[in-house]
Specification:
Number of strands: 12
Order of helices and strands: EEEEEHEHHEEEEEEH
Low-confidence stretches: none
Helix content: 10-25%
Radius of gyration: 18 Å
Bound molecules: flavin mononucleotide
Oligomer: single chain
Strand content: 35-45%
Mean pLDDT: 96
Length: 192
C-alpha cells in the first residue's frame, strides 16, 4: 500500500468520518434546519460548542439575528432527514413543513428542538468569527435535551441503542455499532 503526497487540498473533507448533525435556528417568525458536519465541543467550563458554517446559509442569518442556535444529534434512521435539510434552502422552503419535522419545546431559547434527536443542545451565541470561507459560531450550551435510554450505565452513548450518523463526504453515510466497542484504559496503555 503506497501513500501519495499531494499539495492539493481538494479532498480534505473526506479524510475522516464526521458526525452529521442538524442545526436549527429561528428569528422573526421564521425557523429553519440545516445539516452540519463541521462542529465540536470546545470547552467544558463554560460549556461551549462550535459549529462552522458558510455565511451564505439562510441559517447563518437567523443565528445572527436571534443570537441563538440548536444542535441536534440524530440516530442513523434519520440520515435521510439530514440529507433533506442539507439539500434544501430555508430561503425557498419551510423545511419543517416540507419534511414533516416534529419538534420538542425549547426551555432556555426559542430554537426548534427535533423530537427525533437523542441529544440536542440549546446554545446562546458566544462568538462569531470568520475563518477562511466559513464562520465559526461558538455557542454557550444553556440547556441539554437527552433521551435517557441513549446512555449506557457509564454515561456514554449506548451504541446498542443509538447508532450515530457518520458522514463520509460525497453523500455517503455510515454508522458505528456496539460490536466494535473496545475499552482501552489510558492509565494502563500509557504505561505499557
Ligand atoms: C451531511 C451534510 C453536512 C453538511 N455540513 C455542513 C457544514 O458543516 N457547514 C455548512 O456550512 N454546510 C454544511 N452542509 C450544507 C448545508 O446543510 C446546506 O447548504 C443547506 O442547504 C443550508 O441550508 P440553509 O440555506 O437553509 O441554511 C452540509 C450538508 C450535508 C448534506
Amino acid at each position: 500500500m503506497a501513500k501519495v503526497i499531494s499539495e492539493s487540498m481538494g479532498e480534505l473533507y473526506q479524510h475522516c468520518p464526521r458526525v452529521a448533525t442538524i442545526v436549527t435556528a429561528q428569528a422573526k417568525g421564521k425557523e429553519n434546519a440545516m445539516a452540519v458536519a463541521l462542529h465540536t465541543l470546545l470547552s467544558f467550563n463554560p460549556p461551549l460548542y462550535v459549529i462552522s458554517i458558510t455565511p451564505e446559509r439562510f441559517t447563518y442569518q437567523l443565528i445572527v439575528d436571534s443570537k441563538e442556535f440548536g444542535i441536534n444529534f440524530l440516530p442513523f434512521g434519520e440520515a435521510e432527514l439530514v440529507a433533506s435539510v442539507g439539500g434544501s434552502k430555508g430561503q425557498e422552503v419551510d423545511k419543517f413543513q416540507r419534511f414533516n419535522i416534529a419538534k420538542d419545546r425549547p426551555v432556555k431559547t426559542a430554537v426548534p428542538i427535533l423530537k427525533a434527536a437523542y441529544a440536542a443542545y440549546e446554545c446562546k451565541l458566544f462568538d462569531d468569527r470568520g475563518y477562511g470561507d466559513h464562520r465559526l459560531l461558538v455557542g454557550e450550551i444553556v440547556a441539554v435535551h437527552l433521551l435517557k435510554e441513549a446512555l449506557a450505565p457509564e454515561k456514554v452513548l449506548d451504541l446498542d441503542k443509538v447508532s450515530p450518523i457518520l458522514y463520509l463526504g460525497k453523500e455517503l453515510y455510515a454508522t458505528a455499532s456496539g460490536d466494535t466497542l473496545r475499552k482501552l484504559d489510558r492509565e494502563v496503555y500509557g504505561r505499557r
